[in-house]
Amino acid sequence: MNIDEEKGYTKLVKKEYSPLTIRKYCYFGFPCFVALITDDNLEYLDRSVVEYFSNFKDESLNNIQLLRNLVGGLTERLREIYPKVEGIAVIIFPDKAAISSLWGDFMNHLHCRMELYMLINTMWNL
Length: 126
Fold this sequence. Notes:
alpha+beta; single chain; four-stranded antiparallel sheet
C-alpha cells in the first residue's frame, strides 16, 4: 500500500475508524479545544484555526451569543476544509462558562463524546 505523503494517511491497516486528534488553543486568553475525527492531513490545522480566530472581534468576548457563533462558525469552517472528517468538536471555556459545538460522530455517538471529554479533562493542564 503506497502512502501519499502530501495528502497524509492516518488509517492503520485494517483499522475501521479514523483517529481522534485534539488541539488546545488559548488565542483569546481562555482555553479552546478543537477535536477532529478524520483521515485528512492536519498539517495546516493550526493556521486554519488561528486565521478564523483573527477575524473575530475582541469586544465580542463578553457576549455569549457571539461566542456561540464563534464555535459554530469554526465547526462549519472545519467541515469545509476537511472533506474526510467524521466528527468535529469545538469547545471553549470563557469566564465561568462552557460553550461547545459538536458535529458528526461527537453529536451522534455517546462513546465518542465520553472519550472526547475524558481526554479534555486529562489534558486540561497541558
